[in-house]
Amino acid sequence: MRTAVISIGIGTVGNMPHLPGAPRGAQDFADWAAAQNYDVELLTDEGGNPVDINQIMDVTSKFVSAAVYNKLIIYFSGHGVLAGEGNEKWLLSHAQERSHESVNLMLSNHRARCSGIPHVIIISDACRVYGHTVESSNAGSAIFETNGSHQKTGDLDIYYASQPGDPALEYQLDIGDANDFRGVFTECLLDALQGNISRVIASHKSPGKTVQVVDSRALKQHLSRHVPAFSKTLNIDPVQHPQINVETALPPDYFSELFSTRPLVHDATDIPRGALWTRRSDHDNTQSDYALERQAAAPTYQVSDASDPMRLPPSAFSLALLTDYFVTYGVDRLIPHTGFILDGKIVESDVPPMIGQMDISPGNESGRQCQIIGIREDADPSDKTFLIQFADGEGLSFGVFPGYIGHVRFVDGQIKEIWYVPSFIYRSLVAGPSSIIRKQLEPIFGSDEQNFYPVQGLTALNRELVEGTTLPNISLLMVRAYALFHAGALDKLDELISSTIPDPAEDGRRTMTYPFDLLLLDLRGRIPANASIAPMFPIHTQGWSLIELYRSDAPTLFELRAFVKAGRWTGFSKEGMSYLQDN
Fold first, then answer.
1. β strands within 241-301, DSSP E
2. What is the pLDDT of residues 462-474, one digit of tens each?
3. Beta bridge partners of 226
4. Quick one: 256 and 344 in the same domain?
5. Residue 89 lies in a domain
6. pLDDT digits (tens, 9 = 90+) for 393-422
7. Which band of pLDDT confidence, cut at 50, 70 and 90, is reported for residue 503?
8. Are residues 86 and 209 in the same domain?
9. CA atoms of 285 and 283, how far apart (whole Å)
10. Which residues, 6+ apart, have CB-to-CB distance to 191 below 8 Å?
């Protein structure tokens, strides 16, 4: 069984804070791998030598094309940025000057699974905070070449040093040495890989012998406990929590064998409580910044296994607010057949491409901004993109799905939720006082007073509608599709998309406008070439990481990607809106 290791450490990226612990961490990891008799390639910017995407791709291509490796471990230490849920990048030396000089993790992870290597391990000791600068709009590149196949050939274990929206930290052990910085996660990881933690070690029978190995799942449990405990000794608030997704299990797979150990420089108890620490991002290490980043972090899809591949994000759309709407204005007047409810922000201007005229009803009278936007029945049915621009010059792109109301919730000017609900459900409500309206809405939106719309709370009527012949649950389809893609459950993803294709035996009774996101994730071409698509961009920002998978040449999308705002849902900067108007 042969293992290859690529260890990358980049401490300097343009004018971002220097990270002396990044190249050191890569060197330490490479030293450990060499002691395990692995084939190792070390790429660092030590000595002022930049690391670029071609160097990394050359090394991965060499290991993949050799076709002799059962395992590939890729370690990265340096600056990272999160542009949206699943839209994550490692920043290389020239990331600020060249849009392709970062690593697109979402696309790289997919290609790793399809590379032909049975077991790939990704280790990311980098920040996962939302970017607010040019780095977040960096398109990024995959570090695996495409082989034209979307068939899964191996499993992928991913070790992230922190949770989405949080920083990864490095600390200074010797305050007198300006270069003595170490990554918190890397040190905890190497501690376990050296065989110093008995609970991660297991015996494994291989042909002709029994070996001691580091069990991947036990390692996950250990790091999940030890990294926050270790970071507490550094007076970090909030503490650092890793996110680790392990697809493999012993037997037969494991992280590594135990061939040798490296003497530990320290133990967690040796760290002085006043030790200096910094984080691998471009923000100051203040407590207020940490709180801001954690608040900005979007919920993530937690993959437990392929049969239950998601934790669904709750909708923030208010049940109480909807009840007030219906009581005040009545169902027929308020809810159009197709349209949008914008909760928390007012449209000040609009730009092409438009879909006919907008009929705007006033929102509630309690001071909360809201608009009801109806799409006219005589609108051009071929155009399913609704683009609006706000007074600050920024804008949004919505998909228009006939027969649906798109709920868009804003908090502090930022999109917090987009959820599509069949308008039929609202129009079937029986008029009455607030108690009657609320009683009818609760089974649809759930009775939770925290303004959540859990899919688990759907009524039997809505489930029948979703599984019937006319109106699928568009929002749930996108959530499930992305979750299955992240889980590498490509066969289940194909089954999900195939289930949306109308059956000719139904004699055309069932029609569907597909979200652009599903088109991106349709890796095996199930969606008909002439299908109606909405909008002309991904609805989820993570879809922008997969534009390369789009089966048509789309140069405008590649250029537009640079103007997508950081966040969970696609929004465009002022410059992006100008680009759209000019193109």
1. 243-245, 256-257, 276-279
2. 444 444 334 677 8
3. none
4. no
5. yes
6. 888 888 888 878 888 877 776 777 787 877
7. low
8. yes
9. 6
10. 197, 226, 264
